[in-house]
Amino acid sequence: YEAIEEYRIVIRELPMMMAARINLGILLAKVGDLEGARKEFQKILKIDPENGTALAYLGSTYYKLGDFNEAINAYNKLLGIDPNRKELYYDLGLAYVSSDKLKEALAAFEKAQEYFEGNSRIMFQTALANYKAGDLDETIKKLKTVIEKDPGFGVDPYFYLGRAYFYKGMADEASSYFNNVIQMSGGTNLEKTAREFIDRIEASKPAP
User: Fold this and answer.
1) What value does the CA radius of gyration of the chain take, rounded to a whole number of Å?
2) If phi over 0 gives left and psi between -120 and 50 gives alpha, with beta otherwise, what is residue 100?
3) What CA–CA distances, in Å, run from 59 to 38, 43, 76?
4) 122 within 8 A of 112, measured Cβ to Cβ
5) Any residues with CB less than 8 A from the CB of 149 and at least 6 apart, and which?
6) Mean pLDDT by 10-residue block, N- to C-terminus, for the chain (208 residues)?
7) What is the pTM of this model?
8) What element of type H or E holds 38?
9) What letter would DSSP give residue 150?
10) What is the rounded distance in angstroms from the CA atom of residue 169 to the CA atom of residue 164?
11) By C-alpha distance, which of 167, 166, 189, 186 is closest to 177?
C-alpha cells in the first residue's frame, strides 16, 4: 500500500507520466482493487487513447471483473491499433468463451495457435470451446492431442474427455477416463464429480 501512495504522489506532481499511472493500475489490481485499477487505466486512455499497455491491462481488468463484453472491446481495440500483439488472441478467446460467443472464440484461438503453434494451453481452451459448442468429436480430438503432446498438463483433459464420451453415449470410454481422473485427483471436487458420472453409467446398465 505504501507503493500505491508513492505512485499517487508522483502522479499528482507529474500527471502526464504514463508509466507511473500504469504501475499504479497494476498495483491496484494486484491488491484486489479492480475498480480502482479500471478507473486508472481509463484515465490513461483519456489522455492517450492508443496506449497499448493501458488497453491490454484494461481488458484484463474487465475480464477479472466479469465484464466480458468490455474486455472484448478493449482487446479488439488494441488489436486494431497493433495487430502484432499476438498474445492477445488467447485472452480475447477466453473473453469470447465467457460471453458464450463460441464462433468468435474459436476464431481467436485459431489465430493464437497460428502464432504459438502446438501450445497445449491454447489447444485445451479450444477444446473447451468446442465442448461448449456441442462439437464432441472435435473436443475429443483436441483433448487427446493435449495429452499426447503434454503428458504433464494435468487432470482436466481426462475429465473433459470423460464428459465428452459420456454425452456421446460411449460408456466404456467415459468410465476409463473418469477412472483416470479418480487416480490423478484424489480428494478433490473433480474426483467426486468423476465418481458421480461413473455411478450414473453403472446405474444405466441393464440388469444381468
Assistant:
1) 22
2) left
3) 9, 14, 9
4) yes
5) 118, 120, 123
6) 80 82 91 94 94 95 97 97 91 97 97 92 97 97 96 96 97 96 90 96 84
7) 0.88
8) helix 34-47
9) -
10) 9
11) 166
